[in-house]
Amino acid sequence: MNVVTIHTDAIIQVKVPLPFPLRWVNAYLIRGSRGYTVIDPGLHTPEAEALWEQVLQEQGIAFEHVEQIVLTHHHPDHYGMAGWFQERTGAPVLLSETGYAQVQLLWGAEQPMSQLLLELFTRHGFPAAELDEMTKHMVSFVELVSPQPQVTLLREGPVRLGDRVYEAIETPGHAAGHLVFYDAEAQVMFCGDHVLPQISPNVSFLPQVEENPLGAYLHSLQEIGRLEVKMAYPGHREPWQGFSARASELVRHHHERLALMEGQLSAPQSAYEVCRATFGDRLSMHQMRFALSETIAHLILLEAEGRIQQVDPEADRVYYVAAASQ
Ligand SMILES: [Zn+2]
Ligand SMILES: [Zn+2]
């Protein structure tokens, strides 16, 4: 596997290792006359540190040549090394306001998101006996995003990356506040995890963030799928052509999954039961967290569309049933 791929005079792809089945996250170095922009530097692990030191040395890039670190979204596999880079370069770290709000919920003082998620999962049928393990899993991410950077807020609109001006476009769904960077003239997009080749990006419900994340995702996929994109540079897997077709495929995939889950609810079930029926019962804690959040996101959309309903909206535990079977 090539760790470094030089795509154009200005765009260098760097595969930063991940200790997850995804295997790596793509960071991009964009060369410009004022220095380098680093997009999504990766998860903070000793392996990633060693890789970056080696890659920068081989490419002849000193830390002081880095002018900015730009994040498509706040997920740890993209944001985690931003603070490490900032310590060495003094460069600003740019992230959307919604992304930064989640950084504070997830890894700020008291990390309120852990508790909110555990309460959410419990309400949706996650077994009490496994809560400790889930808590440990969530806490384990803090060191993978530390030290945390000083963040400069990045808004929708023009943003200079290297010597070209891109349009930052908010594309919620996979992550609230997710931004893609689009160069309309060159028809190039850095699409983060919004649209990925081969992989269906996770769409999670998170308390206090977005009421209907899958609804937001399908809407933004349809919007973004209309843009002319010759080359898309994703957060995972390889840069590819055929961005619009892939966006449509993802919309279809979610409609199929919605129909499948609706079909499973001819008798009342919790989100946890629907999750195991959909994703299987051999998930690691890491996979379970995302599978359950994704199931909840689907059920919320089905409920918003009136296709399923809560059996007893007043009860502590949420059970859903298909509207058609009432
Ligand atoms: Zn992500
Ligand atoms: Zn990612």
From TrEMBL:
Single GO term (MF): hydrolase activity
Supply the CDD domains for this chain: TTHA1429-like_MBL-fold
SUPFAM superfamilies, per database record: Metallo-hydrolase/oxidoreductase
Record's catalysed reaction(s) = 3',5'-cyclic CMP + H2O = CMP + H(+); 3',5'-cyclic UMP + H2O = UMP + H(+)
Coiled-coil spans in chain: none
Alphabetically sorted, this entry's keywords are: Hydrolase
Span of domain Metallo-beta-lactamase = 24-236
**Where does the source fall among the domains of life?**
Bacteria
Function according to Swiss-Prot or TrEMBL: Counteracts the endogenous Pycsar antiviral defense system. Phosphodiesterase that enables metal-dependent hydrolysis of host cyclic nucleotide Pycsar defense signals such as cCMP and cUMP.
Please report the name of this protein according to its UniProt entry.
Answer: Hydrolase
Which lineage do the record's taxonomy fields give for this organism?
Bacteria, Bacillati, Bacillota, Bacilli, Bacillales
